[in-house]
Amino acid sequence: MSWNLFLHLLCAHFHDVFSCISGHIVGFLFDLYVFAVSVISRYCTSIRVIPAMLSPDLPFLQRSNLFPMQMPQMLDSFSSTQ
User: Fold this and answer.
1) Cα–Cα distance, 34 to 41 (Å, whole number)
2) Distance CA 8, CA 48 (A)
3) First to last CA, the chain
4) Taking the mean position of all CA atoms in its chain, how far away is CA 40?
5) 10 vs 81: CA distance, rounded Å
6) Do 5 and 13 touch, CB atoms closer than 8 A?
7) Does pLDDT of 33 surpass 60?
8) Once rounded to an integer, what is the mean pLDDT over residues 5-24?
9) pTM of the model
10) What's the alpha-carbon Rg for the chain, to the nearest Å?
11) Run of H or E including 47
12) Which residues does UniProt assign to the signal peptide (predicted)?
């Protein structure tokens, strides 16, 4: 095997390894971006929903639909344990 062919195959191998690693890095960064966007959107949604749950203008039935764990029952069970 000639020296030029050996160097060519070696460079091709490292190019494949590098492109594979860089592809994994780009994929990881994209997954991280999607995760961050989903967490931020959930956080912003919860900021908008929490004031609606605590609003006195809404009847309790509507507030309990927004918040599945009903607060008065939680408070009653908490006060009875103490």
Assistant:
1) 11
2) 59
3) 84
4) 8
5) 71
6) no
7) yes
8) 75
9) 0.40
10) 28
11) helix 3-54
12) 1-19
Distance CA 12, CA 79 (A): 71
Angle at 38 between CA 37 and CA 43, to 5 degrees: 100
- Predicted confidence at residue 61, as pLDDT, reads 46
Q: Cα–Cα distance between 82 and 78 in angstroms, integer?
A: 7
Q: Both tokens of residue 76? A: 């009653």
Give mean pLDDT, residues 69-75: 52
> ∠ CA 31-35-39 to the nearest 5 degrees?
175
**Confidence bin at 7 (pLDDT 50/70/90):** confident
Return the residue matching tokens 């006060």. 79
Torsion angle of C-alpha atoms 35, 40, 42, 48, degrees rounded to 10:
-170
